[in-house]
Design a protein that fits this description.
The protein has about 250 residues and is α/β, with parallel strands linked by helices. Helix content is about 40%, strand content about 15%. It contains eleven helices and seven strands. It binds zinc ion (ZN) (2 copies).
Length: about 250
């Protein structure tokens, strides 16, 4: 199954297109399963001006309702295109130590299909580097994005195989981001390229049972390279590494 579990729309301050346009680009590109994962702060603050208000002026008042409305909108898109593509309602969680970036503690995302967590390995991440504790609190199916988990496990003194096994046990997946994103000037992460070149790393991941997803992290439809998603999904299947949401 060809799945792209990472995409942005105009709900992210950095995203350009309406959800319809993103869904249609995925359909045209032969994607079977598309996950929308707008940035939590883009969804929660609605408008970029609100994001820059002093924290107490907004005080997270409508954040929870904004999360619900986004979910409802994506749900309509899911229904609209149901005969052409399977759409999931996801969210990307920033964990930078800045209250305007991170998901407020009192927000419920347990009804989302999944979330992807970023900045796990950053200095001061609100996860405290504790992926498992943070993911448990979210009560939502979770993946890790934008993180070299081989390097991270080594840095915290854990054998990567053990780390991936624990992720598999706690049902947390790892995203291989294969984007070309002119908005954030990101190209593919080096650790992703390394992983697909390195049979020893692939063997560790395969043995651990952890699931691996592919995400384009698109911010503009004009940048989208669905053939790249297809190629990487096929490569994972050939490696015998399961992806999330397989039927
Ligand atoms: Zn972005
Ligand atoms: Zn993203």
């Amino acid at each position: 199954m060809i799945q792209d579990l990472h995409s942005h729309t105009y709900y992210s301050f950095c995203g350009k297109d309406a959800p319809e346009a993103v869904a249609e680009a995925a359909i045209a590109g032969g994607i079977d399963l598309l996950g929308f994962t707008d940035h939590n702060y883009g969804i929660g603050f609605q408008r970029i001006e609100m994001f820059f208000l002093p924290t107490d002026a907004f005080a997270g008042k409508d954040y929870g309702r904004c999360l619900q409305r986004y979910f409802d909108h994506i749900n309509l898109i899911r229904e609209k295109y149901a005969d052409k593509i399977r759409i999931l309602r996801g969210i990307e969680l920033n964990t930078l130590p800045n209250t305007n970036h991170a998901l407020p503690d009192n927000c419920d995302i347990s009804y989302y299909d999944y979330c992807i967590i970023e900045n796990l390995d950053w200095e001061g991440s609100i996860t405290g580097g504790d992926l498992f504790g943070y993911a448990k609190k979210l009560r939502c199916y979770a993946g890790v994005a934008h993180t070299d988990l081989f390097a991270y496990a080594q840095r915290i003194g854990v054998d990567p195989l053990d780390y991936f096994k624990r992720m598999a046990d706690e049902n947390i997946f790892w995203e291989m981001n294969v984007n070309y994103d002119s908005t954030h000037n990101f190209h593919q992460h080096q650790y992703v390229l390394d992983f697909f070149m390195d049979p020893a790393k692939q063997e560790i991941v395969r043995k651990s049972g952890v699931k691996v997803s592919v995400g384009f992290d698109g911010h503009k439809v004009e940048d989208y390279l669905p053939a790249r998603i297809t190629a990487y999904c096929k490569a994972l299947t050939e490696m015998g590494i399961p992806m999330p949401f397989e039927l």
